[in-house]
Structure formats: C-alpha cells, structure tokens
UniProtKB/TrEMBL annotation:
Gene3D superfamilies: Spore Coat Polysaccharide Biosynthesis Protein SpsA, Chain A (3.90.550.10)
Transferase as UniProt keyword: yes
GO function term, MF aspect, one: transferase activity
Protein name per Swiss-Prot or TrEMBL: Glycosyltransferase family 2 protein
Residue stretches making up the Glycosyltransferase 2-like domain: 11-140
C-alpha cells in the first residue's frame, strides 16, 4: 500500500451510460461482499449523462467509500469516459470495471496483496467469458498453466494480444502514477476503438506487467452479429467503413505503436489473439481480411464511406509489409478489387479476383505460428515464442499448435523442450540425441530378444491350432458314425437291388422288341 495511509490501494472505477439497474446491482454486490472484507478499496461510478435514472439508483448507496460523479457533457464513447475519469480516482491503482461484468471477490483480495507487495505495475487477468444472458462461454480467455507470468516489452502484446484480453477493460488493473492521460487522448485521435489498448502498451512497454491466470471478472462478450451491428452504427455515425475498426483502424494503431517505440514491427506478425469460443488466430491475418471485406463491401454498396482511398490503402499495405513481407501476396488481389471499387477495373473480374484472394488467404492462414518458426535442429521444429525458445517434435500428440497455443509453454520431454536461449536449447537437444544414440545397441538387442520370443509364441500357436484341428476331425468322425452305419446297412443294399431291377427290366424290353 502507499505510504499515505489514507490512500486506498485500489479504486474500482465504473464508467457507465444508461445501465442504471446493472450498475446498481454491481455496487450492491461490491458493498456487501468486497468492501466489508478490505479497507483498501473504494468505488467510483462515473455517469456519462445517463437518462435512465442511474443517479437515483446509485445515490442511496453513496458513502465515504462509494462515490458517484455525473458528467454535465456527454462523451461519445466509453474510452473518452475512462480517460476523463482518471483524475477522479484516488487509489494507487485503478481498475476500470465494465458496468455489465461480474467481479470475482477472491481474486480481488489476492490482487490487493500483490499491490501491497508492489509486484507489478500492470496486472492483466485471464478472465472467464459469458454471453449477454450470463451463460458461460469459456473459463478463461487464453490457454495458460502457471499462476502468472511476468512480461515486458514486445512480449506483452504477443501474449495478451490487442483486441481481446487486453481490450477488455475489466481485465486490466494498473498503477495510476505510471500512465500519462495525454497519451490516452493522443491514442484516441488515431482511432477511437482500442485506443485504451494503445495507451496501456505505450505506458507499460518498459514497465513490469503480470499476466495472472485467474478470472478477475466474468467478462461479458456479445455474439458476433450483435457486436457487428453495434459497431456498424458507430461507424456510420463517424462516417467510416463498417470494417474500419478491425481493419484500417487497427493497422493505423499498430503503426502508431511502432512509431512510439512501444513495439517492434516484427512483433505485429507475431500477435496471437483469442476468440470467445477459445480458438486462437493471428491478428495480422484478421486485419488484412477486414481490408478485403471492406473493399468488397464498397463494391457491393457503392457507399462513399465504405471506400478506401488508394493512397491510404497503399500506405497501410507498406506498413504491414514492413512487419511481414508475406502480407504483400494478400494485398495484391485487394488492390485489384479496390480498382474495381474506384471504377478503374472491369467488374467482370470480381469473381476471379475474389477466388484468387480466398486461395491465397487460406494458405497464409493455415499456420498462425509461421512467423515464430526459426528452422529445425536434431529433427525438432524451433520456435521463438514470447516466453523463450521452444523445440517441438513434429509428431507431438495433439499437433504443434496444441503446444504453441499456451502463453506459458512448458518443457515436456521427449516432445517439447524449452529454454531462454537458442544455444542452451541446442545443447539440450544435442544431449537428448546423444542419449538416444547411446541406447541404440541395447535397443537392438532388446528387439532381437522380442523377435525370438514372438517366434516361439507363433510355434506354440501353430501346435495348438494343429492339435485343435485333429481333435475337431475326431469329433466329426464320432458324430457322423450312426449316419455312416445306416448308409452301409440300408442304403447300399437298396442301391444294389435297384441296379439289378433296372438291368432285368432292360432285358425284358429287348426281348419284346425282337418278338
């Protein structure tokens, strides 16, 4: 805790707009279950000019540790409400809590201990995910084994991502003194959505960040169609394309981060994101796909706001190619499609160019860890991951992606080897290869012994089969004995009588004919 005994360790700031009932239930829960168990937390509700009676609902709950602030001027997105709220927070650390998320009290209490011990400047939690109705979608946002991992520099964006875990404001708790609000407003000017992620990455690029494998909240994540509809309305209001926020907008924000020295260009190609269904994907591929969808939409609708200026497209292409040269192949058909949108190419080529892009994209999207791959050594594939060097046997059960999907990859011989340096990893693999080679003679002797053993077993099986066949023949002979005796005693004499009768009748016929 701070030297100032009156300063709380944590301010839970709840920015809200027209969700009075949800905020009321959230504050009730925090007062009853958290504030009664610690004196190191206060709660601040910041109302962005709601007109649903939020103030009337929250005011009765206000006391010395629960505060309410209502803006007199409406701010047109949630991020702006956050940035303008920083100066109102009195805690050493700030937690912007989404007004529709559900907190995990035990995790908050553990967080307070970590704050007191000054263990990190920013905490990012691996929260659970629920849908709009509160149904559980996933117990965690990213595969992880350890209780926590400490990261800094480019490892932060490569592990926490850009548009999912780190974008969820309720997952992040940060030290108030470590951030510059002016940077937040500057990030907002680049692109509004995800500007807070840029703010975090710039503020904590060289500071101590900890990814905690505990859920801080049940993070509410709407179905994709509902999210798209929401952001389409916002895009229309801003006069930008429907896919702007995830395509051109993110590309501009990533370029901004590189320009500020928060990340290296090569890291852009290594950012792996999560989805609400638990699957993982490469951010760069998704950004390029959004460029493609935006251009196609501009062709289909003809709306001015859906178009991408060729100069802007070229600038974004050059930046993304500087991060990953493979991106050039994907932008080739996109630029052709944009020429159709601008009336510079025949619309009759639309179908063939779309097929061309689809074919190229599927090839590029097949391996999300392509840019992490660094070659092979002693038959193992080598990967440079955020937490260190990894060597994986291509025959590892579950496949290579099942190993790489974890934020904290663990060594699991003989299939997976991990080290902080490439040289140390090479020495590990060399020793393993030498140990395997030394076991070859014993292995061959063991193999010969096994072959002899199997041969003996086959001989025994052959004898058993022969014995069983002979026994079966004897049983058959014994079973058919009555039938064979009846045949000899009755049927054979009858056959002889019939033969004699046929001969006699034949003789009679011949005599009658001569007569």
């Amino acid at each position: 805790m701070s030297d100032n005994a009156k300063q709380p360790a944590l301010t839970i700031c709840i920015p809200t707009y027209n969700r009075g009932k949800r905020v009321h239930s959230l504050v009730l829960f925090l007062k009853s279950n958290l504030l009664t168990r610690t004196d190191d937390v206060n709660v601040l509700v910041v109302d962005n000019c709601s007109n649903d009676g939020t103030e009337a609902l929250i005011t009765p709950l206000v006391d010395e540790r629960v505060q309410f602030f209502k803006r007199t001027e409406f701010l047109d997105n949630a991020e702006k409400n956050m940035y303008a709220s920083v100066e109102l927070c009195t805690g050493e650390y700030i937690w912007f809590h989404g007004d529709d998320e559900l907190p995990m009290v035990e995790t908050v209490l553990e967080l307070i201990k970590s704050i007191r011990a000054d263990e990190a400047d920013m905490f990012v939690f691996n929260s659970s995910v629920i849908n709009d109705e509160g149904g559980l979608l996933a117990t965690r946002m990213a595969p992880m084994r350890s209780l926590y991992v400490d990261v800094c520099g480019d490892a932060l964006i490569q592990t926490a991502g850009f548009v999912f875990m780190l974008a969820g404001i309720s997952n992040v708790v940060f030290k108030r003194s470590a951030v510059d609000v002016d940077v937040a407003w500057e990030s907002q000017a680049v692109a509004p959505i995800y500007s807070h992620v840029c703010w975090f990455l710039i503020s904590f690029a060289q500071k101590r960040s900890r990814i905690v494998n505990l859920p801080l909240v049940y993070y509410r994540n709407s179905a994709i169609p509902k999210q798209i509809k929401h952001f389409q309305k916002y895009a229309e209001r801003l006069g930008v394309g429907d896919h702007y926020f995830w395509g051109l907008g993110v590309a501009q924000q990533l370029e901004y981060l590189v320009s500020k020295g928060a990340i290296q260009p090569g890291s852009v190609a290594k950012v792996i994101e999560g989805r609400r269904d638990g699957t993982r994907f490469r951010l760069l591929n998704e950004v390029i796909m959004r460029f493609y969808l935006q251009v196609v939409l501009s062709i289909e609708t003809g709306e001015a706001r859906q178009r991408i200026d060729p100069a802007v497209l070229k600038h974004s292409r050059d930046f993304l190619v500087s991060c990953d040269p493979f991106a050039y192949d994907l932008f080739e058909p996109i630029e052709k499609l944009n020429e159709i949108a601008m009336g510079q190419r025949s619309r009759s080529e639309l179908r063939s160019i779309r097929k061309e892009f689809d074919l190229i994209f599927r090839q590029h999207d097949a391996d999300p860890y392509r840019n992490h791959w660094c070659g092979t050594c002693f038959g193992f594939d080598l990967y440079n991951m955020p937490m260190g060097w990894v060597a994986i046997d291509p025959d590892v059960p579950g496949g290579i992606e099942s190993v790489l999907q974890y934020i904290d990859i663990r060594q699991s011989p003989p299939y997976v080897w991990v080290s902080d340096s490439l040289e140390d990893l090479r020495l590990l693999l060399q020793k393993y290869a030498e140990d395997q080679a030394a076991q070859v003679p014993d292995s061959e002797a063991h193999t010969r012994t096994e072959i002899v053993k199997i041969g003996k077993e086959l001989v025994e099986i052959s004898r058993f089969v022969s014995s069983e066949y002979a026994r079966t023949v004897q049983i058959s002979l014994q079973t058919t004995m009555p039938i064979r005796l009846f045949t000899r005693a009755v049927l054979f004499p009858l056959r002889r009588v019939a033969l004699v009768a046929r001969r006699a009748l034949g003789s009679v016929r011949r005599r009658l004919v001569r007569a």
